Amino acid sequence: MDDLLADFVAETREMLQAIEGEIVAWEADPADRERLDAIFRFVHTVKGNCGFFDFPRLERLSHGAESALSEVRAGRRHASTGLVTAVLAIIDRITDMIDAIDAGESLPEGGDEMLIAALEPRRDEPDSETIQAGEQAGPRAARTNGNTRSIRLPVELLDRVMSGVSDMVLARNELARRLREQGADPALQGPFERLSAILDEVREGATRMRMQRLEHLFGALPRMVRDLSSELGKQVMIDLEGGDVELDREMIESVRDPLMHILRNAIDHGIEPPAQRLAAGKREIGIVTVSARRTGNRIVIGVSDDGRGIALDRLAEKAVAAGVASAAEVAAMTAEQKLDLIFAPGLSTADTVSQVSGRGVGMDVVRANVERFGGSVSVSSKEGRGTIVFLHLPLTLSIVEGLTVKVGSHTLGLPRSYIVEIARSVSRSVEVDRLGDGIFLTFRGERVPCLDLAEVLGLDQEVDLDRATFVFLRLVSGDLFALAVDRVLDNEDFVLKPLPPALEAIGLYGGTVLLDDGKPILKIDIPGLAEAHGLASQTRVRTVSADGGTQEAVASPQHAVVFTSLTGRRRALRMAVIRHIHMLPVSAIEHAGDGMLATVDGTILPLLGAEGANIATETITALRLDDGESTLLYAVGGVVDSLELPDTIVPVEGDDTLEGTALIDGAMVGVVDAHRLFARHGRRAAPAQQPTCRLPTTDPWVVSFLEPLIRSAGYEILGEDDRRAADISVTLDAAREPDGDGTVVRLRSRPEGSDGDPHSIYRYDREALLTALASARSGTR
Amino acid sequence: MSDLLLLTRIAGRPAAFRAGDIGSIVELTEITPVPRAPDFIAGLAALRSRALTVIDSRKALGLLGPSETTDMRAPVVEVAGHSYALLVDRVDDVVPAAGEPAPTPATLGACWAQVAHGMIETASGPAVLVDVAALVAGPGETAA
Question: What is the rounded distance in angstroms from the CA atom of residue A301 to the CA atom of residue A368?
Fold first, then answer.
């Protein structure tokens, strides 16, 4: 009997979740027969089930709702707002009772009759009017309902299967190692590889078993939006996209609260009251869109509204008033930095504290919560037009991207999300000073406090700072600090396991990680570490000084990664282009025609730099290059260092894959021409200029790709704020043309010409670009 | 209560675990030390895809003196969802319990009394019946 009861509770809850959205949709369109049927089916099922269990109250409630709904179904009654509210109230009561039954408590008597009475038609409602059924709308396309066959399983069983599969993978790896050591017998190799491939499939399947569709989360949103908007006297429609995106079920739970909070903000602060909306020339019904999509191994959930947006100046005033920033600081902020103030503790854009939001739980808490499980939050807003908040989430809670480092004899893991840069002491780009007991680094003109990880861990032997590698970490608060380690080992995906209490109490570690070879290591808890050493300021907002953009970009030094190519040459690539370093198994690489392709994170990318090389290892290192639109992989033998590129880069004749040669640490290093790489392989292209050329230097692509090319064509680069007249100016896509600035060269991002702009040049069309530059110059001179 | 006991020696004295508490016995080959960890935690080890926290039983009792572990076989226990491997002097045998555990005698000493469920008779003589949850909590926890 207990089992039956548990099943009843679980089933009813599941149905409750599933129909919440239906009810609201039904209210919006009472003629929607399918939704009416779904709700009817629910109350009908509840009624049938609870009769069986002898819950007379539940039975009366569901019977009341069933009768009212069947009247509507029979066309004798209209689905008025009053009826919908009454049905919702009954469903709420059913939910409460189910919870009480589950907890083994009894719900206080009374009130049921009132709820049932509310179902009766009131005279002032046009209930008895002839119903204009949806006939005019024509036959509705049959909605696909997600009734694929399913069974209910305890999560614990799934976890056991998962850990079994993980065990198999480790055993497989071990076996593979032994087979390799002993020289593989082909008779064994074939079946082993087959087994291995099957195992990978099983693992993927097992991982997916823990996934849930976002629908589970989305199901509750329409109801929430409905209740909230009527409470606030607003009219809001919610639009849900991407409910079929799958996410780890624990992650779904973790993201529930932040998402609700953002949604509440959008309705409470974002969407204006109907009158204001009409006055602003908008439809009186506000629209909130929640959309989810998967990109690589991250999920992005966007919550956008078409409300009033965030008034930056008012936000800034409030920040000053709240003491978050000084007036001078605020005055120097870019729009983006001002917008970032929304994450400052204790700030809200609401003028009045409503019942709904603005109770002191602000976006700072949302951000902190989301970052706790490895995600991030970003906001963009246009005053008067609306706001959009993005939640970027990892696919699972238990896998994080990490970096393994070595200190003394210990291997430890650092979560990648905090790491901004890695520099080696020997590259001389870092200056080390000891002040008191502290270590301070000067790196790119910034003084950064540094912790010796060996000291932090209480090891006997300190890290030798002359040979150390420094890992620069940026905290949520924006504070930057560095960790000195002996060596950086590798990038790995960490499968995190929780720590036992005795180890958690140390406050240094955030979990244990099993490496590929089955060896356990500890993951460092970066925020905990920073806090313990007083490196995290609680109140500071993320006010990263203007980097990259504006005029300074022209003068600021360029950084590059030095690596050995697969053919053993030393090469450098500009840092700005590099997004990630991947370790690729050779099996992920394919020859395709003249070139090579590789799969990374489920996408196929061109792989360069491996032509003609004989790959003897099982994995290769590849740099992921990105110009903002397309992505390439560049295979390397090994990454040597990252450093500042010298000012002089000597052009080389005869090798057009190189931008030139630079003198780095006394050796000649070829600088790979990223522009040409993308021009050739990136399926898109770019442009450039001479004597003086105005560039939109706020665009990262321009700084990384276009600027070096134009500079090498002999032009002096003028930023957008530079007052000097330029001989030529380059604009991207639809950007406004600057006034009176010589010849204008327009670039477009796509190879195919656009109709409205026949004279634009595809941005990687080097020849056309150089021709345009040449003719522009002869024209002006 | 299970009738079977796993007999071990900790700091030279017989110590018994209920067979039901023991998940398995592992052969510890490599222990990854944990910097800054309390003394009684010897480090981490891997059991297939799980990470085990290795407890030095002698130190967990709060006993002084060097470990006399000669046996790299370690009983694995699960406490509050975490798996621990217990380093003991040696793992002897699985024996049936002869009768119910008797109350902890006062003369056991503070260290042992903290982790003892009681005393139990076995075919190989009497032994202290160990409470694994108290053992893995370490000396600090129980002393407080």
Answer: 17
Residue of A162, A514, A524 to mutate when probing chain B, most B C-beta within 10 A: A514
Judge residue A454's burial from the number of C-beta atoms within 10 Å of its C-beta, 0-12 exposed, 13-18 middle, 19 or more buried. buried
Determine, for residues A502 and B136 on separate chains, whether the beta-carbon distance falls below 8 Å. Answer: yes
A-chain residues within 8 Å CB-CB of B36? 457-458, 506, 508
ipTM attached to this prediction: 0.83
Domain B4-143 coded CATH 2.30.29.170? no
3-state secondary structure of A758: coil
A780 and B CB contact within 8 Å: no
Using alpha carbons, select from A510, A448, A517 the residue that is nearest to residue A478.
Answer: A448
- Per-residue pLDDT reduced to its tens digit, A723-758: 777 777 777 776 666 555 667 777 877 776 655 566
Enumerate long-range contacts of A189-195, CB under 8 Å, 24 or more apart.
none
Which is nearest to B78 in space by CA: A123, A500, A703? A500
Instruction: Report whether A139 contacts A110 (CB < 8 A).
Output: no
Task: State the virtual CA torsion across A30, A33, A35, A40 in degrees, nearest 10.
Answer: 100
Answer whether B38 touches A (CB < 8 Å): yes
Q: Give the residue from B40, B44, B78, B135 with the most A CB atoms within 10 Å of its CB, the best one to mutate.
A: B44
Residue B33 sits at the chain A interface (C-beta within 8 Å): yes
Q: Which of A324-328, A355-359, A636-640 has the lowest mean pLDDT?
A: A355-359
Q: Do B37 and A410 touch (CB under 8 A)?
A: no
SS3 state at A246 = strand
Please provide residue A47's backbone torsions phi and psi, each rounded to the nearest 5 degrees.
-60, -50
Place of tokens 């397309």: A630
CB contact under 8 Å between B137 and A169, yes or no, is no
The domain segmentation of chain B, as residue ranges, is 4-143
| Arithmetic mean of pLDDT, A480-496 | 84
Q: Do A502 and B50 touch (CB under 8 A)?
A: no
Which element (helix H / strand E) includes A272? none
Are A503 and B41 in contact (CB < 8 Å)?
yes
Radius of gyration of chain A, Cα coordinates, nearest whole angstrom: 31
Residue A604 backbone phi and psi in degrees, to 5:
-100, 130
Distance CA A386, CA A5 (A): 47
Chains A, B: CB contacts within 8 A come to 73
Q: Does A496 touch chain B (CB under 8 A)?
A: no
pLDDT at B84: 92
**Predicted pLDDT at A211:** 77
